[in-house]
Amino acid sequence: MFYAPWGYSDKNSYLDTDLNGIISILLNQNDFVNEVDDSICYKARHLVNDLRHNSDMLLSDQKLEDVVCTLQQLLSCCESFKNNSKTSDARAKLEQLKDGSFVLPEEYGQQCLQSQIEKNLKKDLIQFNKDIHGTIPISPLFEDIDMAVPDVYVQPTINRVLSGCQNAKKGQRTARISSLREIFHGQNGPYREIYLCAETGLGKSVFGKRLALIWSQANESDKIQRSFTQDEIDAISHFDFVFYISLKESDQTHLDVDEMMKQQIIRYLAHASQYKTEFLEHILSERKCLIILDGLDEWSHEKGNIPMRRPRQSCTFLTTTRPWRYTVARIKQSKIDLQLEMTGIDKEGKKALITNILKYFGSYDDQSELENSLKEFEKKIARRNVNDLETSPMLLLYMICLWQDGKPLGDSRCDLYCNILEMLLQKVAQTQQQEVEINQNDSTYKPECFEGKEHCCKNIHFVKKLSQLAFLTLFNQSSAENRLVFNEDIAKKNKSESCIEFWLKIGIITRIVRSKGFTSRDIRISFIHKTFHEFFAALHVAFNQNETLITDIVIKSCPDINSVLLNASCLQNLCGLSPIASQTILNGIANVISNSCQTKSLRRNTYAFADYWEMCD
Question: What is the tens place of the pLDDT at every residue in 253-262?
C-alpha cells in the first residue's frame, strides 16, 4: 500500500524492491513521514533514475560526487537511519567510493554491465513495440490510414477448449475466457505452450500486438497515459520481456525461434550491437519471456510443423493460427498447455468498433449524430443480408469503408471483395489522366459479381494477370516456401513489371524488402492479406472455368484432407464465383475427403461418442 501503483504490485517486502520502492515507503509510511526530508528523497530518486537510464554507462567526477552526497544525505535523513548499523556501513562505503578507496570485485562489475545491457534491452524493446506495433491500419487495404491500437481495438470472444475429461464433466466443449490472466495462468501455475486458433480476419494479429503494447506500458517509466486496465497490466507485467514475431515475415529458411527473433527484432533495436547471442540466450533462459508467434498457417518448413523452441523453463509461447493448420500440425497433447478459440466480436463489440471507426472518419457535433450514423449503418447491413460477416473485424471495417464512400456492400463475401476492388480501382482512376487499361470487349466468362463494376471491367486485363499470379503461387506444388510470400523474380517472371507496379499502386499487393549482407537485398511480394490472395486465385479458376488443365491443378493440389483444409477458403470463394468450376473440383476431391484417414477416424469417434452419450442417458 506504500508503493507506487506501477511495477510494484507483486512486491510484498522492502527486501523485494529497489531504491524507488524504499523511497516510496519513506514518503508514505507513517513512521517516517514526519522524520524524512522529502526534498532529499525526491532528489535521490531523480539522480538514480538518471543514472539507470544512462545508456553509455559513463559518469563524470562531478556527477559521481552529487550522487554519493545525495545518497549519504538520504541515509542520514532520519534518526532511525542514523542509529542503524547497516545504513552506517552503507554511508562508509559511499565515502570510500567518493575518495577512490572502494574496490569493487571483478564479478560485481560484470554483473553491473550485464544489468545495464538488460535495462537497455527493455528500454529499446518498449520503444520498438510502440513504434512498430503501436498503430494498425483501419484496413489492410489502406496502410496509410492508421489508428492507435487502444483506440480501435475491441475485445473479441475467446474461449478455452476443454480437454476430453473436462468436456465430459461439464457437458460442453469450450468455456469463455473472462480475463487476460486466465490465458497465462492455470490452477497448476503458468502455461508455457498456448495455441490461439481463429479464422482469418477475427483479430489474432492485433491481439498479439496489443499484448506487446500492454507489456510496454507496464514497464515504461512515464505512467501518465494509461491505455489499458490495471488487470491487463497486472496479467502481463510478470513477464520480464515480450517479443512479437510475425511468422509470415520471417525468413522461411529459419526453423529456430531464436534466429527469427534476431532477424525481426534484435537487429532493429537502438543498441543492437550490445545484444550478442550469448546475452540473448541468457535473457531467454534466466528471465520470464513471452514469445508471440503470429501466423503459424503462414509459415512452412520442410523440417518441422512448428518453429523450433529451445527447452527453456522461463519462456511462454503464444502461437496464433488458423484452425486447419493447428489440426494438421499434429502437435503432441503433452506440448499443449492451453488451446484457445477466438470466435470474433459479439454484438456489443461490433457496436464499439463501428463507433470507433465512425469517430475517426467524421466529425460529429454531438453524440446523437454519431448514434444516428451507427443506426443507419446497422440498417444497411441488415438490408444487405451480410450479418454473418459482422463478427469479423476485418470484414466489418471493409464494409464501413465502402459505406463511407457510398458504395454498395454486396450480398455475399464475393460481392464484398468485388466491391472493394471496384472502389480501389476507381480511386486510382480518379488520380490519373486516363484509364490504365481499357478492355471492355473481353468475351471470356466473368463472375456474376463483376456485373455493373465499371472499373473492374475496364481493367479486366490487369485483374486477370493478378489472378493468374495468385493462382500460380497459391497452388505452387514445387515450393511451399513461395506460396504466400514469394520472390519478386517469381512475380516478374509470370507477370510484366507494369502489372506488378499497377497492383502495388492499387494496394492489393505489397513489397517486403530484407537486407542480405551489405550489398544485396531480398525483395519479396505478398498480397496485403491472405484472404485477397485466395480470392484472386479463385478468380483465375472462375475466369477459366472450362479449362480442364486449371481445375486439374486444383484437384491434384488436394491429394489428402490436410491439403483440402489448406485450400478451403479459396474453394469457398470459388463456389460463389463459378458454380461450374467449383462443382467439377468438389466432385474430383470427394473421394479424397471420403477415404481419408482423418475422415474415417472422425466417423469412428463420432459413433463412439454417440454410443457413450446413449449410455450416459
Answer: 788 999 999 9
